[in-house]
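A note from the maintainers: we've had questions about how concatenated examples are separated. There is no special marker in the raw files; a new sequence line simply starts the next protein. For clarity in this README we add a label.
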Amino acid sequence: MDSFELNKITGGVLTALLFVFGVPEMAYILGGHADAHGKASMGYELPKPKAAASAGGGAPAAAAFSFAKVAAALPAANADAGKEAFRACAQCHTPDKGGANKLGPNLHGIVGREVGKFASFTNYSPALSGKGGAWTWELLTEYLHDPKGSIPGNRMSYAGIKDVAEMADMLAYLRTLSDAPVALPAAPAAAPAAAAPAEQKK
């Protein structure tokens, strides 16, 4: 038997298999089929994408960052972790007592210091030098979380700390940069549990 005859036989077998298995499948697709509820449908049904959560349902949006949440996290804050996080600040600020100013002022004793008034630093932006007041825990939290939003017009190019625990660690570390550390703010008192409604009299 030569190769031509062998090719003809092989082609015939493949054609028969295609007819046996392909025709019923084609009829299934074109003729429709019933779904799990017995409803006829044409062709194949593609998987549907997961619906995005609507405004009135689904998973709730992440709660907003707040000083109250940071204050609540302070009892568990780790000053050593805050020192590690301070590495992102070290290219512009020194933390040690008597340290040199860089692009920004030395931060030793920053808590309680007047905003924009460190005597040996002369490169404050008008936004900071004109801010007034002192660096309280709350103002530091707002500023380190969103520098541009907290004091618009300042020159500090820093994206900000977005994580509550990391912010608490940073504040705990900044507190150590002082000869007389300022007390950390107390955690907010937990809201009292709502009283159960009185049983209605019958």
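[label: protein 2]
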Amino acid sequence: MINGERPRREVRSLIFHLLYAADSFGYDVSVQALIHQFNDGFEMDIEPQGEIAATVAAIIAKRKELDEFLVPLFANWRLERIGCCTHLILYMASWELLETDTPSTIVINEAIELAKAFSEKDAYKFINGVLDQAVKKLGKEDKE
């Protein structure tokens, strides 16, 4: 995904928080405006034109395609039943699986950690199952 000066886990957390803010505003606020709010309100130093911003914008732009990719993997769950945080984590992880060369085990483990921190109590189990199916569908199982 993205590196630079920040650890990858911190980058993913920032992306999640920016996606959550965008979702809260109905995706009617620009990524740059959200970053400006984060930088001012939380004394952050997120680059408004950097890779975090680009990743958030790319995920937001592909929401429909990501839903089309994810929904068949939900096995007896409707999209409406998925909590906001769980949905956003699935967006992030599926985007990363589809658009980057990050090993699938890292993508899944990071998604699980985000879910344990920000999603509903057992959402990490659901996320693990969905992403495992996604990896198999994409033929991206990591080689040992």
